[in-house]
Write a structure and sequence with these properties.
Elements lengths: L6 H12 L5 E4 L6 H10 L4 E5 L3 H14 L5 E4 L6 H5 L5 E7 L14 H13 L1 E11 L4 H15 L6 E6 L10 E7 L7
Parallel strand pairs: 1-2, 1-4, 2-3, 4-5
Antiparallel strand pairs: 5-7, 6-7
Helix pairs in contact: 2-3, 5-6
The structure holds S-adenosylmethionine.
Length: 195
């Protein structure tokens, strides 16, 4: 039985439902590596995970976690901003799924956090690379100042995305106090093209 107490549990169920063996996926914010390891296990040996973080400590922690629990050889780590995603992995790569778990590194420096300008820039780039049915999931922690800005900017961005091409939505726990994280998604509809 799923515990609906936290959007991360819901994200996990959704990832298990949408990510398949052999898929090409992105972790836009490596952090402590939990999402990267989940994705690594789901895409398996024939798939690939591109995992980005601006903090070397996050990459190192995640490599360790991966060596303990993931598939090991299907993850490419990049110690750089997710803003570079198109340039770094190639704009023509088709993406089946991406996760942007925003905010700061749990247990790390709370001053090093995602910012709405670069988050939206990176997400827009990944959205353009989505394959049919491909999905970008975004977890927003809005208990801190940057998170509040991100929540508001992402809300505006998602509401402006063309519904003929993408399905955009939001999952949130409406009866919890203290700004519980929210989960946003953008799914590319089958056979639809921009422009
Ligand atoms: C909430 S943590 C991610 C949690 C992670 N996905 C996990 O499973 O543990 C957010 C991470 O985003 C990283 N970050 C902040 N700005 C970034 C950027 N521009 N590009 C890539 N990563 C960034 C931070 O260094 C931090 O490690």
């Amino acid at each position: 039985m799923i515990d609906l107490n936290n959007v991360l549990n819901i994200l996990n169920v959704l990832l298990n439902n949408c990510v398949k063996s052999g898929d090409t996926v992105i972790d836009g914010t490596t952090g402590n590596g939990y999402d990267t390891v989940t994705l690594s296990n789901l895409v398996g040996e024939k798939g690939i995970v591109y995992s980005f973080d601006i903090q070397n400590i996050a990459i190192e922690k995640s490599k360790k976690l991966l060596s303990e629990s993931g598939v090991h050889n299907n993850v490419l780590f990049f110690n750089e901003s997710h803003e570079n995603v198109k340039h770094t992995i190639g704009k023509d790569v088709k993406i089946n799924c991406a996760v942007f778990n925003l905010g700061f590194l749990p247990g790390g420096d709370k001053n090093i956090t995602t910012h709405f300008h670069s988050s939206i820039y990176a997400i827009e780039n990944v959205v353009e690379m989505l394959d049919d049915n491909g999905i970008v999931y975004i977890v927003v922690y809005w208990g801190h100042e940057n998170g509040k800005l991100e929540k508001s900017a992402l809300d505006t961005y998602l509401r402006g995305v063309d519904q003929k091409i993408y399905n955009c939505g939001r999952i949130e726990l409406v009866n919890q106090k203290n700004c519980p994280p929210i989960l946003l998604f953008i799914q590319k509809r089958v056979g639809k093209k921009e422009g």
